[in-house]
Amino acid sequence: MFPFNNSFDFKIEIPEEIEAFRSTIREFSEKYLAPIVNKVEETNEIDEDVFKKAIELGLVGVGIPPEYDGQGGGSLMMAVMIEEISRFLPAFATAIAVNHLFAYPVLAFGSEEQRRKYVTKIAKGEAFAAHANTEPGAGSDVAGIQTTARKEGNKWVINGRKLFITGANRADFLVVSARTSPPPSSKERWKGLSLFIVEKGMPGLKVTSRINTMGLRGEQPYEVILDNVEVPAENIVGEEGNAFKAIVSTYDHGRIGIAAQAVGIMQGLLERTLDYTAMRNAFGRPILSFEAIAFKIADMLINLEAARLLTYWAATLMDKGSKDAIMAASLAKTFATEAAEKASINAIKMHGGYGVVRETGIERSLRDTMITEIYEGANDIQRLTIIRSLVKKRFGVSVDLT
Ligand SMILES: Cc1cc2nc3c(=O)[nH]c(=O)nc-3n(C[C@H](O)[C@H](O)[C@H](O)COP(=O)(O)OP(=O)(O)OC[C@H]3O[C@@H](n4cnc5c(N)ncnc54)[C@H](O)[C@@H]3O)c2cc1C
Question: Which residue of 210, 277, 313, 379 lies most exposed, with the fewest beta carbons within 10 A?
């Protein structure tokens, strides 16, 4: 079973409430998302009404414990929600899930006051949040960030520039990473980082240019400038200088959602491509009856179900608190997103000329999928996580592969 312990590690149990929840999200997606897909593509905006509906249904509170006014549920519930939304509009899944890149580190590492003050508002949809870590010069290399925070009396003063920040345009609260002390040595670059809660309207915080990306139209990231932003001392999340763990464990959780996003994209593609190839005739017969087409569809299903199983499995391990969840999340994210890329390319081919027409929405899947392979840890960074975990388990040593 190496690198896992035994067969029980592979047990996936889906409680009934998750299936009932799936039906609710499916209904929401079919009713409110499916009809707006082309409009979102054209305008690059998602209507406020859709957010309002999602808030009414409690979707923003999923994954937040009831004691902080959330709906409860863990990684599995979140994965099912993201999957069902992404079947039609992956950008909306990103818009909702990004709140958790704020809520997770505050819940896991923040103070009780911070949880009450900020997370409860997010859970009720009274506030939106964002997570600002990436910078022009550092993405995968979290320890390479240049933003600084210096202590002045009972305040922290933050200076820096963050890039690719999803939801920054509507965020009432942002969790921002900054260096508060230089790394003690080149081998301990991860030391000296801290996380801060910055509120909209604080002087010096500017959400500047919108970054036009190839996919996830409707939910584009932004540049954020922090110019001498003063935050109260109590806005530090967790221990000063020790935020690296909080940042990377946020992504360990978040990337199961990205795997689920890829599963949702593939689910949508499979259904649409199957229907299209059964209806489209060439040489007097449905193109589905050509083996070259039929086998591509069979491969789509093989990859879809393998990706779904990996995703539910990683989510189950995460919800059980297993240490192996981190490796499982990397396996699921890498496999699912790369399978979705392959499915998107094949779906375009099977739709022929219509596959590259924007209004049909097939080529959109490829554009959305490419982003899933990059954010929350690019796939080759996942491969590093996987190999590090393997070496550690086999030989008991940590290796630095960067
Ligand atoms: C649409 C979108 C939304 C985003 N939203 C957010 C957000 O809300 N908040 C936020 O903080 N960030 C966000 N990001 C940023 C995202 O997390 C980063 O783009 C991602 O982590 C990769 O960082 P990078 O772009 O700096 O690429 P780099 O780190 O420069 O990587 C470039 C390439 O080099 C490879 N590479 C780097 N190091 C290694 C290595 N050691 N070994 C092998 N290969 C390596 C990578 O795999 C990648 O292929 C978003 C990005 C996008 C595109």
Answer: 210
Give a yes or no: residue 157 inside a domain.
yes
Q: Is the dihedral of CA 198, 200, 204, 205 positive or negative?
A: positive
Q: Whose CA is nearest to atom 24 of ligand 1?
A: 139
> Before 232, cis peptide (omega within 30)?
no
Average pLDDT (282-308) is: 98
Q: Do 274 and 384 fall into the same domain?
A: yes
Q: Residues 6 or more apart from 42 whose CB is under 8 A from it?
A: none
What residues flank ligand 1, with Cβ below 6 Å?
98, 131-134, 139-141, 164-166, 213, 216, 221, 371, 374-375, 377-378, 380-381, 384, 402
Burial class (CB in 10 A: 0-12, 13-18, 19+), 338: middle
Report the predicted TM-score, pTM, of the whole model to 2 decimal places.
0.98
Q: Are 314 and 277 in contact (CB under 8 A)?
A: no
Smallest CA separation from ligand 1 atom 6, residue: 165
Q: Note whether 158 and 189 are same-domain residues.
A: yes
Task: Please check whether residue 351 is in contact with residue 269, taking contact to mean a CB–CB distance below 8 angstroms.
Answer: no
Res. 402: pLDDT tops 80 = no
What's the confidence (pLDDT) of residue 155? 98
pLDDT tens-digit readout, 4-50: 999 999 999 899 999 999 999 999 999 999 999 999 999 999 999 99
The answer as to whether 1 is a domain residue is: no
Residues designated as active site:
376
87 and 17: one domain? yes
State the residue range of the domain holding 192: 130-241
CATH, residue 317:
1.20.140.10
Check whether residue 147 and residue 118 sit in a common domain.
Answer: no
Is 203 part of any domain?
A: yes
For residue 177, the surrounding DSSP H or E stretch is strand 173-179
Q: Whose CA is nearest to atom 32 of ligand 1?
A: 140
